[in-house]
Amino acid sequence: MSQTQSxxxxxxxxxxxxxxxxLRPLYWWYETRLAKAxxxxxxxxxxxxxxxxxxxxxxxxxxxxxGQGHDLxxxxxxxxxxxCLELGIPHVTIWVFSSDNKSRDPEEVAGLLELFAREAxxxxxxxxxxxxxxxxxxxGQTEDFPxxxxxxxRELEEAxxxxxGLLLHVAIGYGGREEITDAxxxxxxxxLEQGTPLEELINNLSVADIDAQMxxxxxxxxxxxxxxxxxxxxxxxxxWQSAYSEYYFCDAYWPSFRRMDFLRAIRSFQNRERRYGK
Length: 278
Prior knowledge:
Layout: H1 12-18, H2 24-39, E1 47-51, H3 55-62, H4 66-87, E2 91-98, H5 106-125, H6 127-131, E3 135-139, H7 147-160, E4 167-174, H8 176-193, H9 198-204, H10 207-211, E5 224-227, E6 246-249, H11 259-270
Parallel strand pairs: 1-2, 1-5, 2-4, 3-4, 5-6
Helix pairs in contact: 2-11, 3-4, 4-5, 5-7
């Protein structure tokens, strides 16, 4: 290297996404072997749930602000969707914003809602979404979101509503207890409109009745759920649907969740025997 040359310090974002350059060849070798083993495996999730956790903690760790952490988290969500498409997983639900998150600092919430609106518009124009015929459906309570945000989310749903490829549920403004409450309320309202007597309604109420009113109705229950950031809890994610789900808790914060981590999780699922309580 000549004396006139100098190194340009990489941005924190490039460091985050690129990882340790010295270990790249080893990572590539291991990841390639892992991908081959997973693709040769005898089973893949029919419905994968992902709890995207750790954006803010990751941002603090690398000296970024919370908004930048959420931006990196959105970038990672696009990557993970590509990995799911690569494996041919037919149903995916990602939890990006909970009903409890609405109580965070108003400035942070406003920034998140702006991010969701921007990402929705990007996805409407994303050729990969249309080429793979990805159908996108929002689940959660978004009635109190700003009109501009609701319009952007609705536009994305409408742009993909006829597609028959991977079905992506985006849980936004979502809470598991709220979903169950909404389902029961909807069933009761439907029965009352049909004139069903209260005693008959009580005696005949079934699991199938509630199941039919869930946000994910018509979709297989998630057989595998991944949560990042090292937290070992569901926090209300798909409470009704996850009765027999397998779980995988990864220590990596969401923005640093690698394809290698994803493949390890899928391999773990492939090695499990599901007995459904039998």
